[in-house]
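WARN  no MSA supplied for this record, continuing single-sequence
INFO  ligand: coproporphyrinogen I
INFO  echoing inputs
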Amino acid sequence: MTGSSLPSTHPLSAGLTRDSALVQALEGRASSHRPVWFMRQAGRSLPEYLKVREGTSMLESCLDPALASEITLQPVRRYGVDAAIFFSDIVVPMRVAGVGVDIAPGVGPVFDRPIRSMADVEALPELGEAGDGGAFDQALEPIREAVRLTVEQLGQTPLIGFAGAPFTLAAYMVQGRPSRDHMAARELMWAQPEVWEALVAWTSRAAGVFVRTQVLAGASAVQLFDSWAGSLSEKTYVEKCAGGSRAALTAVADLPVPRIHFAANAGHLLDPMGAAGATALGVDYRTPLDEAVAATGGRFPLQGNIDPAMLGAPIEALERHVQDVLDRGAQAPGHVVNLGHGMPPHANPDVVKRVVEQVHERG
Ligand code: 1CP
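INFO  complex generated
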C-alpha cells in the first residue's frame, strides 16, 4: 500500500476528530460522554432520505458524490449522533471494479454471474492497491469525492468508513443473491477449497482497497461488516474466513484509525474476530455486553447493542433496555452505543432521537 500516514488535511491529523467521543471510546480513552450512532442510520426510516432518493437507484445514489454525502449527513443533522457512517453499500467496490451487480429494491445485492469455479474467480477484474492510479483506484474517485464533501460538512463529527467482510461479500457472490443460510458459499469452501481461497483473496483486496480509500479521503474510523459470519462454526470461521478479514483490516493497520469488526449472531466468534486485526468489536443484540467483555478478556472496546426490535416497545420499556445496555457497556474498556444490528426501515425517527438524548444525558 502506498504511504503510511494520513494527509495533513485529514480530520484526525488536523485535530478535528482525534478527541471526539467516538474516537476516544474506540481507543479506550475516557470520553466526555458515551458516543452513539446506529448501523443503517441513513436510509428508509428517514423521510428526508426517501425524498432525495426518489427516481435514483441505490447504486446510482452511492456513486453520486453530492447525493451520497447529503444522505450520509441526514441522520447526523436529525439525531445529533456522534458519528456519520458513509452512505454506500458493501457491493459498491465490486460494481466500481466492473463486476455485474445491482441492488434490487426490496431484495438486496443480485449478481449477473454467480461464482462457481476457478475460471469465474480468474475472470474477476484486477484490483491493484489504494492510491496506485490503476483502473480500480481511478474508478473509486466518486467515493473519494463523496467522503471529502462529507467530512468538510462534518467538522468535528467523525465519519466511519466501512466495507463488507470477505466472507459476507463472497457469500453474495457465490449465491448470486441474498440467502438465509449462505449454503452455496458454505458448500464451496469445502467442495472446492482452492476456489474459495482465491475468491476470499479477491474479496479481501476489494474490501481493503475500499476502506483504505475512504480513510485516506477523510474517514476517522472503519467498520468491517462480517454480517453473515454468525452462520459459521468457530472452527470454520477461523480456518476459512478470519484470514480474509485480517487481510482487509490490515489494509488500514498502518494508519491511526480504530478498526471495528462487527458480525450478527456471532457471540461465539468474538474472540477470533478480535484476533483478526480488530481494535474494537461490534456486538449484536443477542450477547449482553458484560458477557462480551468476559468472552474477550476485557481487551476490546465494544460497540452495541440495543435490540432494534425494542425501538417499537413502549417508551418506558425501551428506556429500561437502553439503561441496561449502558450499565453493561460500562464494564468494557470503551463503549460506543449502537443497535445490535441495522435500523429497522419502519423505525420511528422521534423514538430514535429520544434514545440519542437518553444516551447523552445518562451515558
Ligand atoms: O432501496 C434501498 O433504499 C436500498 C436499501 C439499502 C441501503 C439503504 C441497501 C441494500 N444498502 C443500503 C445502505 C447500506 N448498506 C449502508 C449505509 C450506511 C448506513 O448504515 O446508514 C451500509 C453500512 C450497508 C452495508 C450492508 N449492505 C450490509 C452490512 C450491514 C448489515 O446489515 O449486516 C449488508 C449485508 C448489505 C447488503 C444489502 N444491501 C442492501 C440490502 C437490502 C442488503 C441486505 C440483503 C440481505 O438480506 O442479504
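The longest helix spans residues 193-217.
INFO  checksum written, moving to next record
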